[in-house]
Amino acid sequence: MADSTSTDSAQNAGGSNRILAWVLFGAAAVLLVYAALTGKQTELAFHPMDQFIVKPLFGGDTINWYTPTNVTLWMGFAVVCVFLLLVLGTRGRAIVPSRVQSIAELAYGFVYRMVEDVAGKDGVKYFPYIMTLFMFIVFSNSLGLLPMSYTTTSQIAVTAVLAMAVFLTVTILGFVLHGVGFLKLFWISAAPLPLRPILALIEVISYFVRPVSHSIRLAGNMMAGHAVVKVFAAFAAVALISPLSILAITAILALETLVAFIQAYVFAILTCVYLRDALHPHH
Amino acid sequence: MEGDIVQMGAYIGAGLGATGMGGAAIGVGHVVGNFLSGALRNPSAAAGQTATMFIGIAFAEALGIFSFLISLLLMFAV
Questions:
Q1: What is the pTM of this model?
Q2: What is the CATH number of domain B14-77?
Q3: Which of A29, A134, A215, A265 could make an S-S bridge to A160, C-beta 3.0–4.6 Å?
Q4: What is the DSSP annotation of B25-70?
């Protein structure tokens, strides 16, 4: 008896939910058509790419290499956040950690295990570099999610510097550790001999493409996500579809929170992969 | 009117280049789907392979990023 009533109520709930969903869809469709037919606004209230403009902080329009801009400001904030979390947060060194200290310890352990698993035991020596990269990118991405903030990692200039630093570090390290033997990375001894020159060519191309894909992956993901948010924010200015677009912004920001972390993770783990290649070029 | 047809070509090319991202989407879906089907067969081995999955995703995504880069170049640099 109890079972049947519960299934009945469940069915009723499901039915009413479905009706509600259809009503909402219908209302949204009617509103969209109405807005499209009567809307005077043929242009967005602001351009979605305006948020990526680099502005000097203190007056003037000229930007030299030493000019402090909003990018500089938000990179500084990211560094301050890393400092607060990892230096001040762990200052207590409590055996039962506070919340901030346990976050810092979790981050440390997470990156340490990643370096150990992917780059190997002898890659642990380069753990501080990967930890620095990971924390800086995580905080740059997450600070970019705040309203009115600037996402520094959406600038290809910023990520290209990070990726070129990784590329140069790994290449120089490979040559320092193995000398000319580092070139065996491109000469795959497991493949049959006639194939090896072709594979070597492909390997060389893919090696030099690494910094490009490494930097544009991060910048592209950040830029695309924030541009989509701004497109929906411009839709919110149209009164009729603003509830829908605000819902969409909420959903996209939830996704962006995930993307902000995953892209930092991917950047760090690829650095580990490149490091492993430099430490062990023999396949 | 001169020069407009060049811009039109650049924009059409940018749009066509952006369709290459669809291939990357299929590739990433393939990687994750196969990882999941393997992980459901042997859940105890799955935890150790998530890093490998992310590396695979990153490599699959890289080729889509090149088409995105071509689109960006056509839009802003050409």
A1: 0.81
A2: 1.20.20.10
A3: A215
A4: HHHHHHHHHHHHHHHHH-HHHHGGGHHHHHHHHHHHHHHHHHHHHH
